[in-house]
Amino acid sequence: MRQHKMAIQSGPATQAGTVRFIPLSYNQSDSQTSALRLVLTLRPEWEHTDGKIEFVRFTDGITNTLLKVVNKKPGLSSEEIDNEAVLLRAYGQGTDLIIDRERETQNHELLMRHKLAPELLARFHNGMLYRFIRGAVTSPADLRRQEIWRAVATRLAEWHAVVPCLPSSREALATEVNGGQEIGVPAPTPSKKDPALQAAIDNIAPGKPAPNVWTVMQKWIYALPSSTDAQISRQANLQKELTRLVKEFSNRPGLGTDSLVFAHCDLLSGNVIVQPKSSGITAAGEPKEIVGFIDYEYATPSPAAFDIANHFAEWGGFDCEHQLLPTKSQRKDFIREYIRSYFSFQRDNTGVDEEAEIQKLFDEVDVWRGIPGFYWGIWALIQATISQIDFDYASYAEVRLGEYWSWRADCDGSRAAAGKELPVREKRWAEE
Fold first, then answer.
1. Of 165, 132, 144, which Cα lies nearest the Cα of 292?
2. Nearest to residue 154, comparing CAs of 351, 293, 282, 309?
3. Which pTM was predicted?
4. Inside any domain, residue 406
5. Could you tell me the end-to-end alpha-carbon distance of the chain, in angstroms, rounded to an integer?
6. Entry's PANTHER family (predicted)?
7. Mean pLDDT, rounded, of the chain
8. Domain end call among 72, 99, 134
9. pLDDT at residue 149 in the model
10. Exposure string (b/e) for 256-266, b if CB count within 10 Å is 16 or more?
């Protein structure tokens, strides 16, 4: 989640490990000056042209700051100006607590090698600069349009089928977290770089290479505020629930090596870009729309069913309009498009029973439907304490965690036993 952005798509790749580092920072209180200093360090020739440097701020995000920087040289068309434009993304305050920025850069470079990400031009102390390429950011309503969800299914299948899941070289945890005996970690941690703590995170799901979606959630739970009895109790409860989820879900069979694929894990509308249509005659059978994905800060090896269920949750947008989530038939159509694309990207797809794979993944996504609420609920509890952005993270956390508990209550029969009505989200999910 967690940022609406303008359009960028695939650009030329560079070799891994060669991304330039600029030893400067972006300053929100002195936005234009600090942004200009960064851009002119990257593009010093812009200072000596007769062009006018302009900034376009994209303000719909709830995590980061995003600026488009253009050099309006006389005589150039808007497309030619955009071809040289740069996007500046500055990280939200405190987000290093929940996002591994080194891993994000590795993700970006990995995707660039597969022509699935824009060119990363440079990093700086609290952000990055990358290439802008034209396109249109989608809205939640767009995600529900057939031509868009088909394109999303195709692109997501390519990510999952083509991009390898690479383990990170794990260094000691760089940020102090809040532990306690209730969750099996001394409180407070004796060191900001406690290797035992990193090992506890990496080993939450035995047998799965770290990092992965389970290690992300474990890190977040350790980072939850725990200064009051209520917070300590909630942290312990969520830890107990994560342990339960790992036991139930981490070894389920699925697509990919170790049942993990390289997952986006944040496929909301603002991260889906509709690419410009090429001129000329469209080949028969070619998708009407082609999309690209942006923002890789949460990308990590994950079960494909989690990534898909997480995307379906975003059909309802930030307001969590559960009545707009995909019905059974919509989910089946999406998964059919996904499976056909996934196996088309596989080098050896002989003997694949597509219909069986479609039904298998459909059932698996159904099983996973409650987990995204748990994932983003924990995330929002942390954001409620660290973010300076005007967004009601606390309420968002309650809604998303509520999705998880409602799913639990429906699965274990406690809702029916209590005579409670089926919640809107579960009711919508059950619709044909």
1. 132
2. 293
3. 0.87
4. no
5. 28
6. CHOLINE/ETHANOALAMINE KINASE, ETHANOLAMINE KINASE
7. 86
8. 134
9. 97
10. bebbbbbbbbb
CB atoms within 10 A of CB 138: 25
Name the nearest CA neighbour of 11 among 168, 135, 126, 148: 135
Contact at 8 Å (CB) between 67 and 55?
yes
Phi and psi at residue 164, in whole multiples of 5°?
-75, 155
- The answer to whether residues 26 and 102 belong to one domain is yes
Contact 262, 160 (CB under 8 A): yes
Find the helix or strand (DSSP H, E) in which 274 lies.
Answer: strand 272-274
Q: Which residues contact 161 (CB under 8 A, 6 or more apart)?
A: 261, 341, 342, 343, 345, 346
| 36 assigned to some structural domain | yes
Decide if 298 is inside a domain: no
What is the C-alpha to C-alpha distance for residues 27 and 127, in angstroms, rounded to an integer? 11
| Widest Cα–Cα separation across the chain | 73
Single-letter residue type at 248: E
Please report the pLDDT score of residue 51 as a whole number: 77
User: Do residues 4 and 60 make contact, with C-beta atoms less than 8 angstroms apart?
Assistant: yes
| Spatial separation of the C-alpha atoms in residues 402 and 75, rounded to whole Å | 55
CB 174 within 8 A of CB 192: yes
**Residue 1 has what pLDDT?**
46
Residues 31 and 103 occupy one common structural domain: yes
Q: What's the number of domains the chain is made of?
A: 2
Assess if residue 304 is contained within a domain: no
Q: State how far the Cα of 148 lies from the Cα of 248, in Å rounded to an integer.
A: 33
By residue range, what is the domain housing residue 106?
20-134
Give residue 338's identity as a one-letter amino acid code. Y
pLDDT in tens, 72-112: 988 889 888 988 999 999 987 777 778 888 888 889 999 99
Q: Which pLDDT does position 12 carry in this prediction?
A: 36
Closest to 260 in 3D by CA, of 216, 306, 204, 304: 304
